Amino acid sequence: MSSFRLNLPDHVQVMKAADKSAGQSSDNSPTSRTAVFTAHGLTKVYRMGEVDVHALRGVDVEMYAGEFVVILGASGSGKSTLLNILGGLDVPTSGRVSFRDQSLTDADEDDLTEYRREHIGFVFQFYNLIASLTAKENVALVADIAKDPLEPEEALRKVGLYDRRDHYPSQLSGGEQQRVAIARAIGKRPDVLLCDEPTGALDVKTGVIVLEAIARINQDLGTLTAVITHNAAIAEMADRVISLSDGRVAEIHVNQNRKEAKELVW
Ligand SMILES: Nc1ncnc2c1ncn2[C@@H]1O[C@H](COP(=O)(O)OP(=O)(O)OP(=O)(O)O)[C@@H](O)[C@H]1O
């Protein structure tokens, strides 16, 4: 286990207790945490003709039930590659990664599809909503194939868009569309919410509203939430900040005092 293990704020211990999976652990000591992701020695090499691009160069990382993690780093540092591997969208070149006690490295395509469907909600920079469906219908589409879904109205309420449920994407602002995308991602009540630059296409004010929605879901549902950004201000919201540089973990920082989204300035 890593040396920063004992430093997690009380908030995370509380979230762990609230997490659905916490009952699986018999260790109730204040320093116990349920590892959701455990990755060791992850590398990813993309072969581009004659050239090898080393996106990850040996990443060791753990993420815990209920925490809010920001993955921070410059463009090209490997953030999306790491998130895609954790989310089962990609596989490492070498190294091991597991979700709870399920190895993702040994999983085949079908296993990874089922893993993503059951456990992971994704939010990307661009919202990818279906233009011909209302907000509610966009959310229902995912909830329909889930085992224990949130009602689409409830998911939209959590992101502050219940009143706009019958609106089409073209009738919503960029920030509102992103919040529908977040409602869609949580509609299946995922264990993990993975967000890749969720505010990248938004102005500051709208970005803050989107971050507030993500933080509320982390808080209310106890969903392990990982947000990728190159914006250091956003890192102040996190329980922990994993900084990547050139495909390596450069630093892991524990925020003793998390800021609320509305306090952020950038
Ligand atoms: N499919 C791919 N084929 C080839 N190279 C890739 C591929 N995906 C990523 N890379 C390369 O791997 C490195 C890491 O990319 P990655 O997208 O993970 O970085 P990032 O930190 O998320 O960057 P950004 O903030 O710009 O999205 C980069 O050099 C990138 O060009």
Automatic annotation (TrEMBL):
RNA-binding keyword on record: no
Molecular function via GO: ATP binding; ATP hydrolysis activity; transmembrane transporter activity
Nucleotide-binding among keywords: yes
GO-annotated cellular components: membrane protein complex
UniProt-listed Pfam families: ABC_tran
ABC transporter domain residues: 37-265
Keywords linked to the UniProt accession: ATP-binding, Nucleotide-binding, Transport
Residues annotated as signal peptide: none
InterPro entries: AAA+_ATPase, ABC_transporter-like_ATP-bd, ABC_transporter-like_CS, MacB-like_ATP-bd, P-loop_NTPase
Protein name: Putative ABC transporter ATP-binding protein
Organism: Stieleria marina
